[in-house]
Amino acid sequence: MTKDLFERIIEDKGPLGKWAKQAEGYFVFPKLEGNISNRMIFNGKKVITWSINDYLGLANHPEVIKADADAAAEYGLAYPMGARMMSGHTNYHEQLEKECAEFIDKEAAYLVNFGYQGMVSAIDALVTKNDVIVYDMDTHACIIDGVRLHAGKRFVYKHNDIESFEKNLQRATKLAEQTGGGILVVSEGVFGMRGEQGRLKEIVALKEKYNFRLLVDDAHGFGTLGDNGRGTGFEQGVQDGIDVYFATFAKSMAGIGAFFAGDKDVIQYLQYNMRSQMFAKSLPLAMVKGALKRLDMIRTMPELKDKLWRITNALQSGLKNAGFDLGTTQTCITPVFLKGEIPEAMAMVYDLRENHGIFCSIVVYPVIPKGLIILRLIPTASHTQEDIDETITAFSEIRSKLEKGIYKRIGATMV
Ligand SMILES: Cc1ncc(COP(=O)(O)O)c(C=O)c1O
After folding, report:
1. Which tens digits make up the pLDDT trace of 13-59?
2. Backbone dihedral angles phi then psi of residue 361, each to the nearest 5 degrees
């Protein structure tokens, strides 16, 4: 007898879903209201927002709001209809691709509607069953899902560990020699949880010894690193060594959409083979025109990135001076490492939000090992020194309560 499919789903809600009753609307699916900025409304109260990824403060910039509104007034949100390949192509899509490619020094670029889908589909398109993928253990879920679609072999290396990378590259080389395939290496420019940069310089240097192509997801590096925010490849001086560059518009660009960039032939191949784009509606023109405006601002307003880094440096040095462990971050991403279990973490974050007016993301097991808590702060160009000072004072108070076991007692009543 077969089992009803939904029986399992109702019984086992998954590692996060099992917390839904305690967490929904507050720790997960929270609603931040008001204009996107350093201070928004949560649960009826004003909070300092450290979790919205609006690195350059463009989301609520008057010029951006105007560009978006003008484009929506002119074209609505539907135009163009159909997939790019069929009927959804425009001059503006082409212009944005050209400008993205020029900005990051690649021959060509291809726009995609969502970074996540795009990455899954690009990995699927780039490899066949004879090819081998080598990828970092800590890469984003979209890369993991892309790798899952791969019908051939894959090797995962220890996070940012070049010795482990080379060992796996050797295994991949041996295998690819047997299958007659090639090797795709995938890393992130910036790892989103802990804020480390991918070791692109060392990876690219190994191209001297091994034959592989490098795909880099630079979601958090685009706009924040390198001269003018041109990304992690520029930051490390190895942009030429990145064969396929990816950035989403969901962070520094404060929009939606993403792009891949590389040599013309490779980009043309993606245009004709990426199933998530061939069989999905084109990015609406309002988004495309809005993205053109944002890209222009990133290019011509270096003061936005300078401000982001002033805030980042003040936040990170302030937290370090107050004795907090920020791990090994080398970027704006500011993880504050604390020790405790999930119920304690929930009680602590509740206190932070309700009594200290601080809204940040909380990262716990299974994303990181059991017993660790990360309070993850994403500074932006719209934060102020006052935001930083209030946050550090609040963090010092909650750490002291955590160490005294106060949250353990409260947390036990929350679960
Ligand atoms: C590293 C990384 N890659 C890809 C994505 C997915 O991009 P999008 O939000 O455009 O789907 C994200 C999250 O936005 C990300 O952090």
Report:
1. 888 888 888 888 898 899 999 999 999 999 999 999 999 999 999 99
2. -80, 155
pTM score, whole prediction: 0.96
Closest CA to 185 of 228, 145, 126: 126
Query: Which of 113, 190, 248 for a ligand 1 pocket mutation test, highest count of atoms within 8 Å of Cβ?
Result: 248
Helices 342-356, 406-414: crossing angle, 10 deg rounding: 100
Token digits of residue 108? 């060509």
Class in CATH terms, 5-55+302-412: alpha beta
Region(s) of the chain under CATH 3.90.1150.10: 5-55+302-412
**Per-residue H/E/C for 210-239:** CCCEEEEECCCCCCCCCHHHCCHHHHCCCH
CATH topology for the 62-300 domain:
Aspartate Aminotransferase; domain 2 (3.40.640)
Which residues have C-beta atoms less than 6 Å from ligand 1?
114-116, 119, 140, 142, 188, 192, 217, 219, 248, 250, 258
Secondary structure letter of residue 205 according to DSSP? H
Q: What is the CB neighbour count within 10 angstroms for residue 165? A: 23
